[in-house]
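Hi everyone, sorry if this is the wrong subforum. Our group has a chain we'd like a structural model of before ordering constructs, and none of us has done structure prediction before. Sequence below.
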Amino acid sequence: MTDQAVERLAQAAGISIEWEDADSTARRVSPESLRLVLSGLGFACDGEAQCRESMAMLGDAAGPSCRVLQAGERIAGLYGAAQLVLEDGTRLDLDLATEPPVTAIGYHRLEWSGGVLPIIVAPPRCVEIAPGTRPWGTAAQIYSLRDEQPFGDFGSLADFVSQARNAGADAVMMSPVHALFTTDPSRYSPYSPSSRHFLNPWFADAGRGWFDDEAGGLIDWQQAVPAKLAALRRLYDAKRDDPGFRSFAAGADAALIGHARFEALHAHFFASTGARGWQDWPEVYRRPDAPAVEQFARDQAGEIDFHLFLQWWTDQSLSRAGDPASGMAIGLVTDLAVGLDPGGSHAWSRGEELMMGIGIGAPPDAFQAAGQNWGITSFSPFALQRLEYAPFIGLIRSAMRHAGGIRIDHALGLRRLWVVPSGAEPLDGAYLRFPEQDILRLIALESHRARALVIGEDLGVVPPGFRDTIAERGLMGMRVLPFERDEAGDFTPSSGWDEQAAAMTSTHDLTPIAGWWQGRDIDWREKLGAAGDREADRTQRATERSSLWQACSDAGVAKGLEPAPDQPEPALDAVIAFAAQAPCELLIVPAEDLFGLDEAPNLPGTVDEHPNWRRRLPDRAEALFARDDVSRRLTLIREARKS
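Answer:
Right subforum, don't worry. Here is the predicted structure as tokens:
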């Protein structure tokens, strides 16, 4: 009986008891795993009495804290006289029983006998690419951009964008710029941020000449970050009285102040005790409203001011980086990470918005048989609804700031996330549903306000109908060449790829095409001692190379015999032309493929074994775009995108 009560509670909380894995095999979550997930979400379930109490708590929260409507939809389920107060202050008298649909886009409120109810009205679709224009762009890891500095920043990005624009690119997709742990150079993964609402000061433009040592092909973050922060402190000393900054600091809201306080506290305790997250601080500092925190803020007002300055100056730097993109059809495309570090700024200052007892990851699939726990968390769906979606709205707005588009990492999370209780294995997780319809409508509304297109990373174990759902809302999916295959494993013609999608040759988690052709990913698996038969892998890769070359030949972009494994350049040219021919509205060729590199920025499943997030481009943007082989690929792209 207790197991049945747990299952009823799980279903009420939006946990999927039954699911299908990557092989379409039916799976069922065990009662033990359900208990772990429910407990991690804050729903006690140790016995039927606790299950009843938790069910009642869910029932109390079931009433809508707001309504998210599509333009042209009625306010259903309410009756009587009311006033709809539009965002601009206009008041409309309503009879809720007979009133016509709401058409005014925006954030409104309904005043009626039941109180005040926020009414959010969204357009049916996101901003979209003009039909027939067929734009293209490239993607760059910001830190990889090359100049005399030890890693790329927004100054480097401005140079890269300028060169890409001159080459005819319409967009530059960039790696995430979320705030990390500013004074801890060991935390450099862009997908494990401290806060997604604020920026990473490492990317602020501090000018030139602040780094004396030679910058190599791999970034030494331990050496580079302290040097960059020292340069930014000198900049702060020179600009702390700048009227623009002083106005910014005076207008800082509670969220920004909380972030600056966290940064100062983290710097203090990381330096003195090595504490990596707020859970390692003395207990009196673990709550943002604690007296000890208030005293620290008074004592360290200068440090908090410095961290406010870092956010201001980093935002100014990002704005300047986008200036050269003004001549592009799209411009900068930012990357919105799926989650954040539970020991970071957001979790400390606004933990009530998050699933603090839960990690997120992925179930077992063809690439990770044991599943994945990414060591990050994300918004609680219950908190989002309770807080009228304000945390999510703020996040989308921050991602679209200074951008012509955003890429939503692991967009499958708009419908469901694989949640893993703290300390448990990924196999002990389950899918947790999110209010997908409301979230997609909010994305569409903010897309129109920012005039920014939206790309959703729809890769992995894609739930049935998900791609159709996001397409209906105007989000573009991603069609990444290595994954576009038929049931036999052969590459499918790019002419059949979805129109409402971004065609891509590879991603930051994949070996670039030149490296794939050579088998560099197989070499890495061998080097790391990964399970499996490397000889069988190489035999399989030979078959895959032939399949890809045949697909390119059938498309008319490859001629002659299949190139040898150690001659990837003809194959790379053919693959880029193959992807460029696709009917997809947008083409993105990552810098690694455009410039013929053979190593991936990131090797999933590794931390220190592979130089993740450390590789730099081989030369400056001006020199790279001027190379003969790059010019040839640019010509292939431009010709294919004209048709």
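For your construct planning: The first strand starts at residue 15 and ends at 16. The first helix runs from residue 2 to 13.
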